[in-house]
Amino acid sequence: MRWTTTLLLIAIVGGLGLWAWLGEEPPTGERPPLFAFPVDKVSRVRIERPDLPAIVLERDGERWKMTEPLAVGADKEAVEGMLRRLTTERPISELPSGDAASFGLSPARATVTVSVEGKTHVLEVGQATAVGSNHYARRKGETTVLIVAEEVAKDATLPVSDYRNKRPIDFDKAQVTEVEIVRGGTTLRLANEGGRLWLLSPRLMASREKLDRLLGDLTTIQVKRFVSDAPTPEELARWGLDTPQVSYHLAFGEGKDPLEVQFGRKAERDEIQGYSRYDQHYIRLAHEPYVYLAEVARTEILTREAKDLREEKVLPFRPNEVASIEILRGEEEPLRLRKDGEAWRFENAGLPTSEADAGAVQTLLAAVSGATAEETVTDPRAARQHGLARPAAQVRLTLGSGMSMAIAFGEAEGERLWVRSTWGGTVEDAVLGTKSEVQAGALRSYADLRDRRLFDEWDDGGAEIVVTRSRDTTRFVKNTLPNGEKRWVIPDSADPEIYRPVGISLERALAKLEAASFVLYAPVPLRDRDLRPYGLRERDRSARVRAVFRGSAEGEAEHVIEIDIGSALGDGTRHARLTDDLHHVFLIPRSLADDLLGNLSATVEERITEGTSVTPPPGGAGR
Q1: CA atoms within 13 A on the CB side of 8
Q2: How far is the CA of 157 from the CAs of 48, 85, 108, 183, 226, in angstroms?
């Protein structure tokens, strides 16, 4: 045998001897975990150590609580982490029974008793092995000594504070019914009233989202050090908890006690142990004696003012919720609109038309619903200073639920407009700064909101249009030709079997008529002399267009619309009016007038095939 082989064998034998001397043996296959119980079924854990109070942890629904040596919340992650290690960690080695005292197991350095569905599982932890950081342990009732990892032994020897809940401010924010924040000499109180959240002093619409975020920040505050379990009055004063810097008073639904969280002074550098990214404050819960040093990552908890909790929108609503609108301007009669299915109609008696432009109404509602409170001033003098003591204009809305609200308009300062809101009859104790463009979008006149369409969409059915000019009259009818095609034609008065087809100019003109817009609204009827500047008097007009719509159903009456075309403007437009509308003057594109007044007939005559008739089919109805 070569000498190198001899040395190798000596080394192996020596290693095995050393392993045996340390009380450990080489692994002989994978061993089962220490215990095999379901972690989610554990109801109780008891940790006992000589000369120290026992730690008792009990499951409380989805949480854990400590019942000994303190009645406090327990750290769920720490408790269940220990239980997972007991059910997943495998013994490193096993030794035959021996003198228990030599392994630190008589008495044990620590005993962990786990109660699961009426059974108990007990692990006794002894001293550390001579080499390394592993520990001796054994299951109660067995004689075999186990070598377990350091983490298992550490769980059984942690101080009480490691099993205490590091987030003691624990509540369900959805159950909070009232919040009071006391800071210095100021008290902010928030409560639900009439289906929404209000700041009660000063009276402001509060943001549920902002409040929920603030309450959520409270529940995430993490304890860095448990300062005292029985503080004296002198200690409370030293930590700033005799007169807290900020206090949160939370009320809940029936059956749950209120909660008060007190924040004392900020800890000095020499009071903080280890590294801390954020400021630490002394805090306590009023119903408990314990004082904590906690890291406050969100300084908003300590600095919130009324303006910080105000709803972001001036009036929080969705446009499709609105059922009626009222617009008030100075001494003018209020303009009232009501939703009718998908349409909007004017409610004012005496208005020449009852239908409003749905797009214009949506623009109004979008302006009001999109107005944001970019500045909130709660000074009682602010309403007078910014022109809101007696607002010159208001928009009042009523939702389908019956809830009413309003926005009042004050002065504009550059791009800033001062407004005030009312919700459910309650006027806010503040004025709000929003963008000046809100007023232009929201304060609409009858002229802005009137339905601008002269006609509903033209139907493919039959109709007749007569264009009367100073010297001639042209009649158009929409006919169905033998091939099924529908076309506008000019009938030949001498021979009804001959017609002149019309080009696209008439179709184009009709499409433009639908988009015509008006430029003048007179509250009182316009007289003939009032129409002179527009070339719309009987003697001045360029042409009259008479459209006859035949009813689409049997017995339905014809509908006639007449349009007078007046003088041309230099910008390529012409004045026009509906002959039965005594309140409006319209502006139509000059090209539209040219299409109606120009040569609309084709140059080629066509004859209908003998034996076929050319008659206007039923259909087509306009307004």
Answers
A1: 5
A2: 9, 14, 11, 42, 18
3-state helix/strand/coil string of 310-328: ECCECCCCCHHHEEEEEEE
Alpha carbon distance 347, 432 (integer Å): 31
Both tokens of 215, joined, read 């309450």
DSSP E strands in 50-200: the ranges are: 52-60, 63-68, 72-73, 93-95, 110-116, 119-128, 135-139, 145-148, 176-183, 186-193, 196-200
The tokens of 228 are what?
A: 């005292």
pLDDT at 502 over 90: no
Distances (CA, A) of 197 to 171, 200, 212, 463: 19, 9, 11, 58
Per residue in 214-223, pLDDT (tens digit) is 999 999 999 9
The amino acid at 204: L
282's torsion region: left (phi>0), alpha (psi -120 to 50) or beta?
beta
Secondary structure (3-state) at 275: coil
Burial class (CB in 10 A: 0-12, 13-18, 19+), 198: buried
Sheet arrangement for strand 222-228: 203-205, 196-200, 186-193, 176-183, 246-252, 259-266, 280-285, 291-295, 222-228
Alpha-carbon span 30 to 519, nearest angstrom: 92
Q: In what order do the strands lie in the sheet with 93-95?
A: 72-73, 63-68, 52-60, 42-49, 110-116, 119-128, 135-139, 145-148, 93-95
Query: Using one digit for the tens of pLDDT, what is the confidence trace for 297-308?
Result: 888 999 989 999
Which residue in this structure is represented by tokens 């026992």?
54
Residue 73 to residue 259: CA distance in whole angstroms? 15
Residues, the chain: 623
For the chain, first and last CA: distance in Å? 118
Whether 170 and 154 have beta carbons less than 8 Å apart is answered as: no
Compute the average pLDDT of residues 492-507: 65
- CA gap 563, 455 in Å, rounded: 11
Pair 442, 367: CB distance under 8 Å: yes
